[in-house]
Amino acid sequence: MCMNNIQERATSFLSVLRHCQVLGMTVEQADERGLIIRLPYSPAIVGNPVSGVVHGGAITTLMDTCCGISTVCYLPEFEICPTLDLRIDYMHPAEPGKAIYGFAECYRITPTVIFTRGVAYQDDREQPIAHVVGTFMRMGKPDAKGQLSRKIDGETQ
């Protein structure tokens, strides 16, 4: 699969997720090595208004989305892959006022489950805010009438 096609598929996938639109998430990089999504800092994701620290739920949303969309970096065609399990270990709070990046990769693909891992970080991926591992159920391709898969795979009606 062409790297540009992976980036386009990941961006298309993200664009159909309403919560990602509301949070302003963008695909920064997507290729055969994995996916990076940017979550901009905003007052809407602050958990502590006194300190400005981002709510853990926003980071969880970023990482669940990042792990889920990373499947398009590895699968030849879009498949429905809902989250089975997601574990996040928080290392330290995000620095207020700065964007947060999520990186995820698939490290094992079976006929029924995809295994992912990644990190949330700000300036340096080697200094993560959080580590994540997630599993996603492979439910196969949607039926031919599925608008979501056509949009993600770049097909027109």
TrEMBL record:
<keyword id="KW-0378">Hydrolase</keyword>
<dbReference type="Pfam" id="PF03061">
    <property type="entry name" value="4HBT"/>
</dbReference>
<dbReference type="InterPro" id="IPR029069">
    <property type="entry name" value="HotDog_dom_sf"/>
</dbReference>
<dbReference type="GO" id="GO:0061522">
    <property type="term" value="F:1,4-dihydroxy-2-naphthoyl-CoA thioesterase activity"/>
</dbReference>
<dbReference type="GO" id="GO:0005829">
    <property type="term" value="C:cytosol"/>
</dbReference>
<dbReference type="InterPro" id="IPR003736">
    <property type="entry name" value="PAAI_dom"/>
</dbReference>
<feature type="domain" description="Thioesterase">
    <location>
        <begin position="52"/>
        <end position="127"/>
    </location>
</feature>
<dbReference type="InterPro" id="IPR006683">
    <property type="entry name" value="Thioestr_dom"/>
</dbReference>
<protein>
    <submittedName>
        <fullName>PaaI family thioesterase</fullName>
    </submittedName>
</protein>
